[in-house]
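Re: your question about LytTR family transcriptional regulator

S., sorry for the slow reply, the queue was backed up all week. Below is exactly what I fed in.
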Amino acid sequence: MINHEDIKLNLDEIFRINTMKDYIIIYTVTRKLIVHQTMKSIMEKINLENFIRVHNSHIISLNHLQSVGKNSIVVANERIPVSEKYKAFLTEFIDRFK
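Result:
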């Protein structure tokens, strides 16, 4: 909800989601939305086959993943940190497609 309005988003347009305290920022191809929700609630609403959590405060779209480094990834030309907590999960996930 934005300004207490429901907005329909195409999940294919979302390339990353990150948190800022009690808000999430949804980055799409055309805009950036700030929504009063928790990361847990947004994880329940998105298709986990297309999105992966790489940090306590970052979820990325696998459809927009460009490269994977040792401690970061690049999504839509933005470098995103990968925390130790999620690194093994990300590596395991990517290894399935090699």
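DSSP finds two helices and eight strands in the chain. Residues 26 and 33 are 5 Å apart (CA to CA).

Happy to talk it through on Thursday.
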